Amino acid sequence: MSRQEQDQASLSPGASAHLGVQLRRLFNATADEPIPARLTDLLDRLEQAERASASPPAPERLESAAMAEAGR
Question: For the chain, what is the HEC assignment?
Answer without folding.
Answer: CCHHHHHHHCCCHHHHHHHHHHHHHHHHHHHCCCCCHHHHHHHHHHHHHHHHHHCCCCHHHHHHHHHHHHCC
